[in-house]
Write a structure and sequence with these properties.
single chain; 434 Repressor (Amino-terminal Domain); 6 helices
């Protein structure tokens, strides 16, 4: 994993931990409500890349933050710019029709 990606996951895990603490929820309570092991919650809060996205979503749901996931890639600025450029694709010659392709 690239260092920048690892840093993003670490920061995300830290934000989850802070959200849990602001709600004054014990780690064991969040883990139980999310249906995960306490160790899995700890790995998520440390931003370990092996934690499944579904696990993060379950944690977000317990914290009341699941709607925040809809914000990911919501404003795809690069994608919109590429679409606006309407770069032409490769052009191919039309396929020969059945009788034009046959030679006597």
């Amino acid at each position: 994993m690239f260092p920048a990606s690892a840093a993003l996951l670490h920061d995300f895990g830290e934000r989850l931990r802070l959200a849990r603490l602001r709600r004054q929820m014990a780690a064991a309570t969040v883990a139980t409500r999310a249906g995960i092991a306490r160790a899995t919650l700890a790995r998520a809060e440390h931003g370990e890349p092996a934690v499944a996205l579904g696990t993060y979503l379950r944690i977000l749901r317990v914290l009341g933050l699941e709607s925040n996931l809809s914000l990911v890639a919501r404003d795809d600025e690069l994608g919109r710019k590429l679409q606006d450029l309407e770069l032409p694709g490769r052009r191919r010659a039309p396929k020969a029709t059945g009788h034009a392709a046959r030679r006597p």
